[in-house]
Amino acid sequence: MRLSKFLLPTLREVPSEAEIPSHQLMLRAGLIRKLASGVYSFLPLGLKALKKIENIVRDSMDSHDAQELLMSAVLPKEYFETSGRWEVFGPEMFRLKDRAGRDFCLGPTHEEIFTDTVKNTIKSYKQLPVTLYQIQTKYRDERRPRFGVIRSREFIMKDAYSFDTNEEGLDISYKNMYDAYREAFDKMGLEYLIVDADSGAMGGSGSQEFMVKSDVGEDTIAYCSCGFCSNIEKAACVPEAIETNEDIFDIEKIYTPHSRTIEELTEFLGTTADKFAKTLLYNSDGKIVAVMVRGDREVNETKLANYLGSINLELASPDDVVKTTGAAVGFAGPVNLGVDVLVDNEVALMKNFVVGANETEYHFKNVNINKDFTPTYVGDFRNIEEGNICPVCKKERISTCQGIEVGHIFKLGTKYSKSMDCKFLDENGKEQIPIMGCYGIGVTRCMAAIIEQSSDESGIIWPVSVAPYHVIVVPVNTKNEEQVKLAEEIYSELKKNGIEVLLDDRNERAGVKFKDADLIGMPLRINVGKGAADGLVELVTRKDLSVKELSAADAIKEAIEYINNNK
Ligand code: ATP
Ligand code: MG
């Protein structure tokens, strides 16, 4: 492809809307353009890379015997009503009506539709197991679209669904997808961790996420040298008691003006956050509940939602807090609260602690569990933190890092096959319900994750496997016939050998061309400059910007070898 004819609107300036490197680079390198919040168009160079990623995913699925099909993105309401998810998805679902007033949505995920397809096409155990997949556009009206295509409202997902006759079969199908995912992410050149993930309240017997380690990742991963590696949403916590020989004192109300937050309180009382237990009020499907964690800990909303079986869980509104506590926000406490009080294991080990008094500007001190209030339930309701004891080996301290979730594999069980009334006949002619797994890869998110892991100050550094083109040939001075001629020869020779090549035949200054080449990040660049008179060119490797002067023939040979060895 000749750059003079290529739609490649590169930008010198960093677009102000982009906070993280991959988003900035995707805009600057002319890969994507924003249409609306969380909605992007892919320009030619971006689409080339996207197709490569798609094909890596497709090859790994096909080589593990998954079958590709393609479902509509416009989905009738009835399927989601049957599964109960028309309500569950809430505002994240894009909804629309047809001209006759019938309800549809733009598919956020396709469990229902795949299950229905299997229900209508599979009758006998002889047709199972089967794993079906598609690479298709998904729609989710995310609360906070951000980071470009990392969290967008329209994105491409590979979603796969397996159907088995029994649990052992599901284990095999799941392992098969696990292997396929490793193959795909390895091929993309990603460095990733495979972490234990939450399976939700409603069942599912296991789930793992593929996380690309990155400071901009929205997920937090806890890991230990013993091999433990888990999303903190799921990681169990070992309660760490603060040793004290104190006697139990009597509860006492204290005046704490202007002390709503833990920081303000610790400062006012001159103590540390671990002497407090904070009481947070949540709205779980319309019911208000309180949860208590130590002052220096965070509530884990996934654990809380799983315990409560919540469909929608969110912090109670200020109005609900005032109604429930009778006090301004910031003074909630467990004593005479009148709603269920869930207490974290660690709080249950505390003595003589401080809590809100359900009265504006007042707290209680010397509060003790079962003396001053009775918890509804004591359990694990907090986030694990860096330096906590590992829940598996119980010896080492865990570390944490951030990750971008690029894939998720999930043992679903019969949740959808049951609710959608999907059945098959077993060996004895008896009706059985297939056991399902579901498996997602965020294809567009992968592209951002690759760039996040593989770029420098000058631009993108594409791994060969996903690079939109392999080599860019740059005639340094397009007015010099010798240079132009040699560049053209190299361009066509590389193409003949199956290498994907860009020729920068634009009448631009060398500096501009080199900057653009570094920005768009093809693995190799061949500069055809003054040396052309002697048949010499420069071969530049984008990864380390190393430069080699070679004859044109050797440069072509080395380029072909490099690309084929790294594909
Ligand atoms: P997240 O926790 O990031 O919202 P999720 O659990 O909702 O992800 P799944 O429903 O498991 O995601 O979707 C499968 C894959 O699709 C995810 O692993 C992720 O790579 C990708 N994905 C999910 N939501 C988005 C989004 N809004 N934008 C881009 N990719 C997404
Ligand atoms: Mg999500």
Structure notes:
This protein has 567 residues and is α+β, with helices and mostly antiparallel strands. The protein folds into 3 domains: 18-186 and 420-452, 2-Layer Sandwich (BirA Bifunctional Protein, domain 2); 252-379, YbaK/aminoacyl-tRNA synthetase-associated domain (YbaK protein), CATH 3.90.960.10; 469-566, Anticodon-binding domain (Rossmann fold), CATH 3.40.50.800. The chain contains 14 helices and 31 strands. The strands form 8 sheets. Strands 3, 7, 8, 9, 10, 11, 12, 21 and 24 form a 9-stranded mixed beta sheet that branches. Strands 16-14-15-17-20 form a 5-stranded mixed beta sheet. A hairpin with a 5-residue loop joins β22 and β23 (431-432). The radius of gyration is 29 Å and the shape is globular. The structure holds adenosine-5'-triphosphate and magnesium ion (MG).
Give the SSE layout.
Elements: H1 21-28, E1 32-36, E2 39-42, H2 44-62, E3 67-68, E4 74-76, H3 77-83, H4 85-88, E5 94-97, E6 103-106, H5 111-121, E7 130-139, E8 154-164, H6 167-187, E9 192-196, E10 206-213, E11 219-223, E12 229-231, E13 252-255, H7 262-269, E14 277-284, E15 287-294, H8 301-308, E16 313-315, H9 318-325, E17 341-344, E18 353-356, E19 362-367, E20 377-379, E21 399-413, H10 415-419, E22 424-425, E23 431-432, E24 435-442, H11 443-453, E25 455-456, E26 459-460, E27 471-475, H12 481-496, E28 501-503, H13 510-520, E29 524-528, E30 536-541, E31 546-551, H14 552-566
Parallel strand pairs: 3-7, 15-17, 17-20, 27-28, 27-29
Antiparallel strand pairs: 1-2, 4-6, 5-6, 7-8, 8-24, 9-10, 10-21, 11-12, 11-21, 13-19, 14-15, 14-16, 18-19, 21-24, 22-23, 25-26, 29-30, 30-31
Helix pairs in contact: 1-11, 2-6, 2-11, 12-14
The structure holds adenosine-5'-triphosphate and magnesium ion (MG).
The site of adenosine-5'-triphosphate has 15 residues, from strand 8, strand 21, strand 24 and helix 11.
